[in-house]
Amino acid sequence: MSEDTNLFITRGEALELLSSSWNPEQEREWISLKDALGRVTAKPLYSQNTMPVYRISQVDGIAVRFSDFMNGIPDTSGWVKGVDYVQADTGDDFPDEFDTVIPVEDTHYDSDGRLGLAKGLTLKAGDCVGAAGTAVRQGDLIADAQVRLTPLHLSMLALSGIYHLEVLRKPRVIYIPTGSELITAGIRPERGQTIESNSLMVTALLEQWGADVTCYPIIKDKPEELAEALDKALQAADLVLINGGSSKGAEDFNTALLRKRADLFRHGVRAIPGRPVGMAIIAGKPVINMPGPTFATFLAMDWCVSGLVHHYYGLPAPQRPKVKVSLTKALEKRPDYEFYFRMMVTGKDGGYEATPLGWDRNLPDSLLKMDAILIVPIGVAGYQAGEEVEVELMCGPEYF
To answer: Name one Pfam family in it (predicted).
Structure first.
């Protein structure tokens, strides 16, 4: 019997359906600044300090009295350090009687230590002096609410005197690997066994997006054990991920379980690979049943789970950089589905060309050499060799 694609929805429709049905409570918590990288602010953060507190030197040099230069460059051979001038390095305060700084590049000393100034030196009152508050002023906005904090934010927050701050609690995500064929990494597989490796990738992605992750032990394909694990996860998590058992195999019980429990359930998206993804809302929480193959799991994480984690924070999901490439080979696909092609990108003649990594390659050869993803949309049957298309880069274009 042929597949009825009308029962499947697009990725965009699926994410909109889940996001509009999930209204997570955004709890807050206080953390130390040293733990704030990547966290999302709960409220606007304003500077408590004015820096510099008083005026400072903006360069390495010497501080002088501009009044000594009113009639041109004076003879400085008899000047005494600490009396006629003082050292003033970048960021340093200096005595109030001095008001102008000369950069070190415009000074020199003879063999007897006598100060000399560069020929043609021009000077204005207050040169190279930063006024109080030129770095930051009390009350300046450092970060608005719902901002993911970067290393630059941390530096500015410290300068502003903010050492403890209120952030949104990380969403709690529980990952449940399922499958009677799975064994824990570290055990040598025998016939009929497969190493459960997706949890490492899933955990790394979730932590990168700012989630708190718990991985359950492998659950065998037994309906009662699957149901028990799901009930336990729903009690503790904001978002539950189930890996495996999402298709139509004899032991793919997860679809039936979610369909039975869910207030909202959809099975299947119009995208290949990964079309049998299951999406449910149970007790007000999203439960995503991802296909087991590594690339299909990665794609479900990439468009669906990433979207939900960022929805929790009220942030847009990050977008990969895109570049135009010339295809080295023709591509064909079903026009009624989106299709993800794994691409290897190389620089050529000031631009880029991309070669599809075929499905005949093994996982290390296809996934680890994948520089970019080409998403061919619904309604397009393929592209010709030499045609220019836009790909999403897995890293920045500076690497090619």
So the answer is: MoeA_N
